[in-house]
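Propose amino acids for all 289 sites.
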């Protein structure tokens, strides 16, 4: 009888364990299910013939709110991360970065952020943030505000490397914002100020009082993206210099980059000779030069 009772209690304990975890879990971590999204502009244009302002981000009559379901196949997932807003205010919690079907995967258009301790996701447009990080199971992802979108970095460090979203076009280059400039922003509104403003019916844009034109990185929205061959953007964080790297100018750009770098001997440089080795080349520069 005692053995049977012990078995029942063990089974009951196992059955209740997931419930206990769910009760004790932070609300910001419960993001595998559909979440309400707040802070969407009242005049946000809906996708024609739908109640959605973005793929998967739709108005629910049942909830009387916009909702997003990261559990649906193909929808962007939430990951632990941090978003730095235009005035320097930081929102830490769970972050989903959403792109459109016409964009390459390294380009994101809007962000959904569930701040720590909150249950609703806050909507951020392509002009609301400057820097985004996400920690996935495999990697740390970093996105920079660039030319009306959020652009994922390939390499971080004193030299940043990203794909060029305007490759093959005559569009002038916009600049990234230097890390030092972002770090110097005051964050005047503050985390709670932003959250309170959103709950009061305002948008992130309306809640920010500073940084509305923080450098050239705010740019204009990309109207279309047609990339036939990937090109790169090489950004020097110290000198605030941005260079577009193509197959045609790759050799010269690498010669300039490694000029004066004692660690880059002839054998090392030979290994970076091919265009497809650009990621390894920039990683080596950041680590050794």
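Proposal:
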């Amino acid at each position: 009888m005692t053995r049977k009772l012990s078995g029942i209690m063990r089974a009951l304990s196992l059955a209740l364990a997931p419930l206990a975890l769910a009760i004790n879990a932070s609300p910001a971590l419960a993001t595998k299910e559909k979440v309400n999204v707040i802070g969407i502009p009242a005049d946000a244009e809906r996708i024609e013939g739908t109640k959605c302002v973005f793929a998967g981000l739709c108005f629910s009559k049942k909830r009387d709110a916009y909702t997003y379901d990261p559990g649906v196949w193909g929808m962007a997932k939430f990951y632990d991360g941090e978003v730095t807003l235009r005035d320097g205010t930081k929102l830490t919690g769970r972050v989903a970065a959403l792109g459109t079907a016409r964009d390459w995967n390294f380009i994101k258009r809007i962000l959904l952020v569930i701040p720590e301790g909150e249950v609703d996701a806050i909507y951020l447009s392509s002009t609301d943030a400057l820097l985004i990080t996400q920690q996935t199971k495999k990697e740390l992802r970093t996105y920079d505000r660039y030319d009306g979108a959020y652009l994922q970095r390939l390499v971080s460090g004193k030299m940043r490397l990203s794909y060029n979203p305007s490759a093959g076009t005559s569009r002038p280059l916009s600049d990234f914002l230097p890390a030092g400039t972002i770090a110097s922003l005051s964050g005047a509104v503050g985390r709670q100020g932003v959250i309170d403003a959103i709950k009061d019916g305002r948008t992130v844009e309306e809640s920010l009082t500073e940084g509305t034109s923080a450098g050239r990185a705010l740019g204009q929205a990309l109207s279309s993206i047609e990339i036939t061959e990937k090109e790169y953007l090489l950004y020097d964080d110290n000198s605030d210099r941005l260079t577009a790297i193509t197959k045609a100018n790759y050799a010269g750009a690498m010669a300039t980059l490694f000029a004066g770098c004692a660690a880059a001997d002839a054998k090392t440089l030979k290994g970076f000779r091919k265009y497809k080795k650009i990621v390894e080349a920039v990683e080596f520069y950041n680590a050794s030069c």
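DSSP finds seven helices and 15 strands in the chain. The helical segments are 2-24, 179-184, 191-199, 204-207, 250-258, 266-271, 278-288.
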